[in-house]
Amino acid sequence: TDGLNVFGGYSVIDQVKNAAAGYDKNRTQYAIGATYAIGSLTMGYQWTRDNRQLVNSTNYYENDAFGVSFNVNDDLSLSVGVHQSEKNDASGTTTSNDATSLQAAYSVGGASLKFARTDVDNASYSTAVANDKEGYTLALTLAF
Q1: What is the DSSP letter of 144?
Q2: Please, what's the largest Cα pairwise distance for the chain?
Q3: d(Cα 68, Cα 102) in Å, to the nearest integer?
């Protein structure tokens, strides 16, 4: 069905202030997002933040994710997803991690063929060239 779906969430994890462990405050997490579907097209966006509250390490992560999917017909669907994450250290240093994935799925009868191509820049929040990754997935599923 066509329409807009909006969602949000909030979480608190009790962390006793502990200088030895590096915790400064309780860990909090936030999420907001929306999807919109019209006909065969669905679009979505989500923002999240994870306040880890570590004074000597990662202070927080902030993430943006969005995607678009299109059902060409009852048998073929195409989609793209993008995830951008930023790691923020207590020292003020930020490092990004970006991923993009393209997917296609085709079904006929009880068989489905699925393909995905995914690229990640700065995997593990490391800017070394070796942390730029690329992967492919090809799957065939059969239902009896």
Answers
A1: -
A2: 60
A3: 10
Compute the distance between CA of residue 7 and CA of residue 74 in angstroms, rounded to an integer: 28
Structure tokens at 70: 């299109």
Cα 78 → chain centroid: 18
What single-letter amino acid sits at 104? A
The β-bridge partners of 135 are 118
The phi and psi torsions of 70 (rounded to 5 degrees) equal -140, 125
CA dihedral (87, 91, 92, 94) in degrees, to 10, reads: -30
Q: Centre a 10 Å sphere on the Cβ of residue 51 and count the other Cβ atoms it contains.
A: 19
Global confidence as pTM: 0.82
CA distance 129 to 115: 26
Strands 111-121 and 94-108: antiparallel
User: Rg of the chain over CA atoms, in angstroms?
Assistant: 19
Q: What are 81's strand-pairing partners?
A: 67, 101
Residue-wise pLDDT tens digits, 94-117? 999 999 999 999 999 999 999 999
DSSP state of 19: T
